[in-house]
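Example record used in the benchmark description.
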Amino acid sequence: MKILIITLAALMAIIVLFQFYMLMSVTKTETQKFSIIQKYKDFEIRFYPSATLATIKSNARTYRELSGPGFRKLAGYIFGGNESEAKISMTSPVHMDINDSGSTMSFVMPSSYNETNLPVPNDANVIINKVPDEYVAVIGFGGFASDADLKFYSEKLQNLLKKEGITPLGPFRYLGYNPPFQLIGRKNEIIVSVDWKVK
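Model output (structure tokens):
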């Protein structure tokens, strides 16, 4: 019995240390740059400058259907699945646009890369594209994301924007910041482009 308790305590200590390590690693990961334009009680307006993404398209209609297969394809590209066999650093967040007419998942490329100096993907389904500047509304939540969470927070953000007289443009999208094996300190966001006039 004593050996079992000691073994369990050691396993718990390893898990806690691993999660602490993961939390520290995530804080050192390059994050897509943005500026906070205005803060409201439950959401904020941000400006995202143009960025270069690696994107895959999918017929998936749910977070569960898109997240695993999409991540594997994009991870394959940045972990050497390209014409140069180059290793490209992971950044955050991962972008997902999930809807019935076709979904996408994107990795933001490190700021040292652009469309001209990124290696060509071996997988033709991985597309390198540049997205324009945009103003977005953002609402955050913790824990492991689910389709129910995405629906709930998209509707909440939509209602908050309506209350403030801000017009959303296009679909509500999901941003995920953490690897699947990180258990604590998880960060998720729902964003949508907005019609924002600079004051």
